[in-house]
Design brief:
- By secondary structure, the chain is α+β, with helices and mostly antiparallel strands.
- Helices cover 51% and strands 18% of the residues.
- Among the domains are: 65 residues, no CATH class; 108 residues, OB fold (Dihydrolipoamide Acetyltransferase, E2P) (Beta Barrel), CATH 2.40.50.140; 55 residues, no CATH class.
- It is built from twelve helices and seven strands.
- It has a five-stranded mixed barrel with strand order 1-3-4-6-5.
- The relative contact order is 0.09.
- The model has no long low-confidence stretch (mean pLDDT 77).
Amino acid sequence: MNATPIVRRPLVGVAISVAAGLFFHNNYGGSPLLLLGLSAVLLSLCCWMIFRRNTAGLLYLCCATLASAYSAIESLPSAATNTFMVAEHRYSELDIQGTIADDPVTYESNSTVSFLLKAQLLLNENQHLPINTLVRVYAKAGSDTIQFGEQWRFCGRLTRYKKPRGGAEGSFRVTDAKGWKIKEASPSLLGYCYALRRDAAAILRSGVEPFLEQTRLIHAMLLGYRQAIPSDLYLLFTRTGTLHIFAISGQHAVMLAAIFIAGLKLIGIPRPRWGLLLIPSLFLYIFTTGLQPSALRALAMATIFFIAPFVKRRPDIPSSMAVAALLILMMNPANINDPGFLLSFVIVSGL
């Protein structure tokens, strides 16, 4: 009777170790130098014991301490960020300049436009102080269209959040009637994706202009224009607990992938080649709909899974999930405290 071969998945152990290290620092803190020193000691011990006995446990512990050190370094406030936050308390109004960091959304109910701004300069008393902070800007919609990638200057009031929301450190409400455009947007992939989303919205709107409410619902469900939902309907979906159907999530990515896979099967493309068409299609859709975190997680897992045949490896779902988790946590260690991040991986693991 042949014994079942043991499947080793070291990436799963590394991912769990990194997640544990990030969780430890986010909840208990720690000095970056102390954590780096401990990592160096553990790594040296692994090198000394590598030919003597199994060192997997020490390597995983080393990964956890390195992740804690990385989180500690990432959480250190920079001088530019401190300058911006100190200015919040010293001045009632701030004059800032920065780059539009997402696709602006207009609220027609109160003629307000909202967008993320990567603040880069604080202009005050003939001084240009460098800053590096992401803020959520609210301004009155005017005749000038604000688009992703453009550089603008605004004057308004800053309110800092207790905890970052969607990457933003606070909200900035523009007090002037309008801002000043400093520079046009440079060509970029994300800018192209946002333009493609606007074109798709125009196509979906064509021919059904009288049905404005229904059009907004379609835009929200298919393209991620969640803010376009009328306030009364938004409140209704919130009270009934069904607002999540408008969030571009991993479910959208799975449905799109299923449609593409069915088409690829019909035209006879072999399974190892599915990734050639599937990954770019998912990439374009998820970038176009606003880079929602849950959809990005699905994209990362799908990419790792379908790219395995191209590097002569067998697709493995646990290893794909582990690599996706590592990439997401390294990009933003704060995701370890995001319930959506944890639930998405737990649910996929259960399935």
